[in-house]
Amino acid sequence: MTGAEAANIAANSPPPPPPPPLELEPLPRNSNGRRPLSIEEVCFTSAMTCFEGLLKLDPAIGTRTMFYVTKFISRTLEKTHALKDVRENLSKSVEVWIWLTRDFAAAIPSLTTRSIGPLASLNDPDKGVTAQESTTLITKNYQSLRDDLQLLIKLMHIARNLLVVPEPEIPQDLCAAAQFDQMLYQTIILCVNVTSKAYDGDILEEGARLKLSEITELYKKLLVTCLQQAHNWIAKNDRNKMSFWSTVLFDEDAMEDSSLYGEGEFRPDVAKTEVQNWYERNSEFCPKARQLLVEYEETVARHGIPPGHLPCISPLAWNWLPEGSVRARADKASDNTKITPQWVEDEPDKFTQDQRYGRVSREVDVWWLKIRDPNYESWVVPMPTVEFAQQRTENCKANLVNRYAHAYRTEEHEVEDSVHSAEGNAPPEGSGEQDAKEGGHYAHDYNDDMIEEEDIDDDESYGEGPMSGLLTEVPNILDPKQIEALHMIVKSCILDNAGLALSNAGENLQKTRCRMFLALECGRSLLREILVFIAVWEKSEQSLIFQLTTQIVEAIHHSALIPYAWQSLRIPKDIISPAQTVLLRLVNNMFRARNADPPKAESKEHLRDVKLLHFLFIQFRSRIVPECAALMHLQAQIRNELCDPSDFPVDSWDMERAKDGLTQFLELLSTVNELQETRHYLIEWEAAYELIVLLKGLEAGVEKATMVQPVPARSAQRQQNDTPDHDDHGYDSEDHPLAPPPPLQEPAHKFPWAGIKGQILHILAGLLQPPNGRNGPGNPEVQDQILRHNGLVPLLNCCVYDDHNRFARERVQICLKWLMDGSNAANKFLRDLVAMNPQPSPQQLAQQAAQQGLRVDGLPSDVRVRTRGAQDEAAPPPRPNLSAVHAPLSRSLPPLVATNAGPGNPGGPPPPPPPGHVPVTAVLEVEVDENGEIDRDTLKEHILPPIRGGGGQQGERNRSEELLRNIMTLADEQAAAAAVAAGAGVGVVEGGVMGGNNNTHPRNRSEELLRDIITLADEAARLAMNSRPGGGGEGDETEEEEVVVEEEEFM
Q1: Which of 220, 236, 252 is the last residue of a domain?
Q2: pLDDT in tens, 727-774
Q3: Pick the residue with more confidence: 489 or 425?
Q4: CA distances (Å), origin 926, targets 715, 873, 1036
Q5: Closest by alpha carbon to 697, among 624, 762, 785, 646?
Q6: Residues of 462-501 as b/e, b for ≥16 C-beta within 10 angstroms?
Q7: What is the band of 948 on the pLDDT scale with cuts at 50, 70, 90?
Q8: What single-letter DSSP state applies at residue 989?
Q9: Which of 195, 203, 1023, 1026 has a C-alpha 20 to 30 A away from that of 579?
């Protein structure tokens, strides 16, 4: 047959018959009206059916079947991520939600048994499984646990994705109807129980440790996904928020009979009943969700088709059951009629009583009215006076040791003390008659007992044993990236965003949940852990966790509950607990945001902020400063050898916590001080007193640190540790043991409180500055406060360099500038200080001349100098013309301190030196030799650069600069008088300034204060020398040059 014939036959033959259609099982859709299932629904529900069989071992599922189960679940997860239509279709499937619930209901008991032991042992402490036994179970069931956890994580991811649709209320209601939220809670509990166990990995071999680590990470990942699903489920749904909030806050184990609570106390069981009644009154679903549920019951569940009926035990069941089959007591969601809450005390039916009240919980409302800020509606609690603060400080100093012994008391003593306090109405410790006279309102309304006796115990988060609450342990398990969903849940439940609608009873449900948050122990514990989490992980203000927590604190502030939260976060043994420190930091961040766009002075927001600041400053005045000052006082006694160091009641860790809290308080005051609208409150409350008290305490209790370590000590230590090298000695020679390592930190009684002075001086400078738009004079009210509380002396003491407070000298000059500007009293004080200074005796001057040492600020001891003779003396460099600087002062100063350069000759030559004065130029010879002297390069490296005074090169001097020069002029005159009395200049400058130096001869008080003033003059001289043309600038020296220090005779 040719090809043409074959082609002809093929063209004329009939076409082959079509292939037979695929035989698919018909879906029951026509007979009972069931909607058709998509291919994704069929595959996904089939996979979940097999997975449930695997978990229940009924029927037994083989490896090949599980391969397809895993494949279908993975593909469904990918589609819910990428395909919007598939996600919406699955989210409206009642069958999908029921199968998800059934899978987790089967998985939780199975995982529990394989991870932490039998279910019967969970609630029985005697039968509980130890961490070691749990480790054995996990490693034994490693393979099955890993496979099942991976599938459960994917299923929870799918459940999370199904809630991200244009109409989220539909899947949210279907999820609640299937009670998947209950499985969510049980899964969170399981993950917390497994991941919070203290597994000892050191006793495991490498393979077992890796298995345990992998299973633990899978549980953490499942926990994170559960939190994300919970956040999506409660988003913009008040009913779901209330359901979730009541579940995590009302701890069933901690619930007690209401008869155990006294009259007027918060009763959690009553509050829980009222919340459940509100939930039932607001149990109506959205219309589309109700329609889907009714269709499912009629077309699927009634015919016995899996997955079966929806649970009918919840108050939500009336939404899909036939009318009349269950009692429906829900309010109509479409009814927007406003109601007035009415509380009928003698109403026998609790549901009817709560229904008439209309709000969520009267128990919560009454608690809030009692516990909120007493100044919420009007100013009830006044600011404690300075006299009260002084008495409080003295009491703290007297009772310091007893106070810490009381904090560490046993539980039996706590019970006895509380009984005595209740029976005898004993005042709180440290309070005297002054408390009742000056701070009566404070003691009553802002008392520490505001939070009941139950909170006097130590912080549970730092103890052993489980903490109350479903979510309380979560911050101790997850890291910052994993825990974000938890913070978003709390924020979503309590933050009062603008524009939220009120309920028919006029209730803001966000604020109600915020009050529940702090009314219940579980909520307070969770808040504490959230705050401590920021400190543990050292999160910055830019991190998402910090910003979310700031919004949580903002919500608490809107309900006027930060005072109560502050008291609930107390730890008796701490001046300020870590959680309180973080709370202060968050409040400070909140106020800093206000400074960018401050509210109007008469606005409600401004008044609310001022009342919060009022409360925090009361804490600052009544607790923080007195107790810190008491510690500094004890440090001073130990430093002066009046007390034994072993009597110091706290360790370095407690001191560090106290310092961190004090630092945050000062940061808050600095932020508030930036705005004139809030600064005047600090002035009105005399905040300068507390700052002066702290300065005095630091000056007396802490030795100033030099810029470099004393050389003799280093040399001696090096000589002691150095041993001769011998060839026959090995590294492990026993003949020459190594010296013991130095201590890691100073003892607690030498705690330096580093950086505190700089913060205090920054605040004082802000308080002293003139109002906005004016260049002077300084604030007269603050000037008077500082002088009245003897604050000028501590300020002058800050002129000495202190390595613990490196920029205190620069900041104190600003304080002195505004303090002297316009204050005749301050100027008179300094003149009297110089006048009362006795002239040195000839013996003292002779001994000073023999010492041949130069005191360099910031170095620990005198530096040897070599005095040039007349034959070696070169022509001195041109001296700075200080007469131009001091000219404006000549008319305002007494004749003793007036300069020769009068107003008509501001730029004239300097006056002639006094008779008998011999100009001397001293040269420093700084080098490292066998005796351990300081190297010249080391000296140059550590000497402070000259201070750049603002406007120092300008011809015009404002009043504030003139008064600052007044201090320097007084010091110049005193230095000149000392040089004249010496008869011949000697290159010696004594370093008898207060604080941390090693003086050979004791100095009386006036001499020490005078040396502080001279320090300012020295800085001015260095500024002038560095600004003259062609000489003395920074960076002009070479290695071959000698460091020359010339003793100037300032006029």
Answers
A1: 236
A2: 443 333 344 444 444 455 689 999 999 999 999 999 999 999 987 778
A3: 489
A4: 16, 19, 18
A5: 624
A6: eeeeebbbbbbbbbebbebeebbbbbbbbbbbbbbeeeee
A7: very low
A8: B
A9: 195
**Single-letter code of the amino acid located at 499:** G
Per-residue burial over 136-151, b = 16 or more CB atoms within 10 Å of its CB, e = otherwise:
ebbbebbeebeebbbb
Higher pLDDT, 923 or 328: 328
Give the residue from 157, 164, 172 showing the smallest Cα distance to 78.
Answer: 157
Query: Which residues does residue 867 pair with via DSSP β-bridges, in sequence order?
Result: 922
- Find the domain containing 149 and state its range: 39-236
Residues 751, 744: Cα–Cα separation, whole Å = 13
Confidence check: pLDDT of 566 > 80: yes
pLDDT in tens, 50-65: 999 999 987 778 899 9
Q: What total of structural domains would you count in the chain?
A: 2
Write b or e for each residue in 260-274: b if 16 or more Cβ atoms lie within 10 A of its Cβ, otherwise e: eeeeeebbbbbbbbb
Q: Which residue shows structure tokens 């009395």?
A: 981
Give me the phi and psi of 150, to 5 degrees please: -60, -40
**β-sheet bridge partners, residue 934:** none
Distance CA(51)–CA(39), nearest Å, equals: 18
Question: Is 523 a member of any domain?
Answer: no
Q: Which tens digit of pLDDT belongs to each residue from 842-867? A: 777 666 665 555 555 555 555 555 54
**What is the mean predicted confidence (pLDDT) over 94-105?**
97
- Of 707 and 302, the structure prediction assigns the larger pLDDT to 302
Locate all alpha helices (DSSP H) within 798-859, ordered by sequence: 808-820, 824-835, 842-851
C-alpha to C-alpha distance for 110 and 51, rounded to whole angstroms:
12
- Residue 130 in domain: yes
- Is residue 1046 within a helix (H) or strand (E), and if so which, with residue range? strand 1044-1046
Q: Which H or E element spans position 269?
A: helix 268-281
Q: How far apart are the first and last CA of the chain?
A: 134
CB contact at 8 A, 598 and 433: no
Task: Count the Cβ atoms, other than its own, within 10 Å of residue 59.
Answer: 10
pLDDT confidence tier of residue 184, bands split at 50, 70 and 90: very high
Q: Taking 90 as the threshold, does the pLDDT of residue 229 lie above it?
A: yes
State the greatest distance between any 2 C-alpha atoms of the chain, in Å, as a whole number: 145
Alpha carbon of residue 583 to chain centroid? 5
Give 154's contacts (C-beta < 8 A, 6+ positions apart): 73, 74, 77
- Indicate whether this model's pTM tops 0.85: no
Residue found under tokens 């128990």: 363
Least confident interval from 297-301, 312-316, 920-924 = 920-924
Share of the chain above pLDDT 70, in %: 64
Greatest mean pLDDT among 250-254, 313-317, 540-544: 540-544
In a domain, 640, yes or no: no
Closest CA to 621 of 577, 572, 684, 673: 684
Report the b/e string of 634-646 with b at 16+ CB within 10 A.
Answer: bbbbbbeeebeee
Inside any domain, residue 937:
yes
Cα–Cα distance between 805 and 754 in angstroms, integer? 6
Is 883 within 8 Å of 899 (Cβ atoms)? yes
3-state SS class at 1014: helix
Q: Does residue 153 contact residue 226 with C-beta atoms inside 8 Å?
A: no
List, edge to edge, every strand of the sheet that includes 863-867.
853-854, 863-867, 921-924, 1044-1046
Do the bridges between strand 1044-1046 and strand 853-854 make them parallel or antiparallel, or are there none, so unpaired?
unpaired
Domain boundary among 236, 261, 280: 236
Instruction: Report the relative pairing of strands 921-924 and 853-854 from DSSP bridges.
Output: unpaired
Q: What is the pLDDT of residues 460-519, one digit of tens each?
A: 334 334 457 889 999 999 999 999 999 999 999 999 886 678 999 999 999 999 999 999
Residue 15, preceding bond cis, omega within 30 degrees?
A: no
| Average pLDDT of every residue of the chain | 76
